[in-house]
Amino acid sequence: MSQETITLYEAIGGDETVKALTRRFYELMDTLPEAARCRAIHPPDLSGSEEKLYEYLSGYLGGPSLYIEKRGHPMLRRRHFVAEIGAEERDEWLLCFRRAMDDTIANEKLRDIIWEPVERLAHHMQNKE
Length: 129
Fold this sequence. Notes:
This protein has helices at 8-12, 14-31, 36-40, 47-60, 66-71, 76-79, 87-104, 108-125. Helix 2 (14-31) crosses helix 7 (87-104) and helix 7 packs antiparallel against helix 8 (108-125). The chain is mostly helical.
């Protein structure tokens, strides 16, 4: 028996799901009162942020390296120093990401696999107490 290995990108549904995930993430951030602090550190127009997250997640999940091809190495922490990210902003970001995954990725086990490194990344992005 041969088992073919697929990426998380493929397992969750590829480009369509990554686009839906990022769209839903920013819809939630833009509308949830409990995400107001996180929303406040983003630009008024979220379309650029959505595009960058979509590109990043595509490669991060094992799909096309859109972000790197277009913008170079992510250097996420450095790129986010312009925003003060404390525990509240981090937790609100994670709230939106978790809900967006729940709304767009059907398989709970896949959501759990994605969650742990995303949660670690969010903690790494915090740059103020």
